Amino acid sequence: QVQLVESGGGLVQPGGSLRLSCAASGFRFSAYFMNWFRQARGKGLEWVSCITGGGSNTMYADSVKGRFTISRDNAKNTLYLQMNTLRPEDTAVYYCGKSADSRGQGTQVTVSS
Prior knowledge:
Number of helices: 0
Helix content: under 10%
Structural class: mainly beta
Low-confidence stretches: none
Radius of gyration: 13 Å
Strand content: over 45%
Order of helices and strands: EEEEEEEEEEE
Distance between the termini: 40 Å
């Protein structure tokens, strides 16, 4: 069955960087758009970014454009999110998924001094 396991979250100071990873299994990874979502405490799920199956095209939410970079390694069935210039408002649980209804268990990112 589909398995998505996020990792790489943690506590970082404002202005810092983190790189999230998402290990995928149970489906033909390279054939699917993949997404990153996030959910801050007490708020709804927010779409962050997506990437085409081959990795040639990407899209970003306005809130992260220019700071976050999505990428993938289809040979390793792994999705990445490089997050730079982090802000306190980026604090959330980050999820990867084929869709909002098909995502992993999430990894916590906390941006605080």
